[in-house]
Structure formats: C-alpha cells, structure tokens
Amino acid sequence: MKSLAGLGGLVYSTDAGRMCPGCRQPVAQCACKSAPVRPAGDGIARVARESKGRGGKTVTLVRGLALDDAALVQLGKQLKAACGSGGTVKDGVIEVQGDHADKVLEWLRKQGHAAKRSGG
Length: 120
Prior knowledge:
Distance between the termini: 55 Å
Radius of gyration: 18 Å
CATH architecture of the largest domain: 2-Layer Sandwich
Strand order of the largest sheet: 3-4-2-1-5
Number of domains: 2
Helix content: 10-25%
CATH superfamily of the largest domain: SUI1-like domain
Shape: globular
CATH topology of the largest domain: Translation Initiation Factor Eif1
Structural class: alpha+beta
Largest sheet: 5 strands, mixed
C-alpha cells in the first residue's frame, strides 16, 4: 500500500478556512504569497441580487468597496443588522441573505458611500 504523504498532505479541512493552492497553508499564513489577491475596489459600491448556485435562495451582494478586510466585516455586520438578516463577507464581497437590495442601497448612501444598483 502506498503512503498518503506522496499525495501532497492535507486534502480537506474546515479548521483553517481558505487555503493557499501553492503552499497549502491558510491564506493568512501563506509562505509562498501566491494566494489570490483581491482586486482593489473603485470606491463605488455595486449592489446586486443573486440566486444562481444557491439552491434558489436569494442573496444581496455588495461589491467594489475600497475597504480593508476588518472594515468590510464591520460594515457587513451593520448591514445585516439594518436588514434584520444573516450573511457573511467572502473575498471582499458582502453577502446579505434575502432580497434587500433597495434597503442596502439606501443604507449605504445614508452612510456616505457612493452606491449604485447593478444587475437586473
């Protein structure tokens, strides 16, 4: 029987979150720095509604904000509270569960962010 060590180590784990494809370490501890870099936003928040690939569930997405990860998490928390809904922040995109595009757009504008509706 062959050793599993020759296959490259860890196959799947939920403990560390996203993993770097190059060095197979958590992205925060990446040794090779080949982890995908999030493109910088242009400062205009684009609010969209999406349901593809989510089992028919609708989510409201906010993209394009030029904020660091900690500020995005804080803004996401405030948006979720304003909408009375759950959600998350992944790869620089704030996801709020449910169809709250109009409410999110209005809330962002009140907070002083340049925001516009994207998608259909």
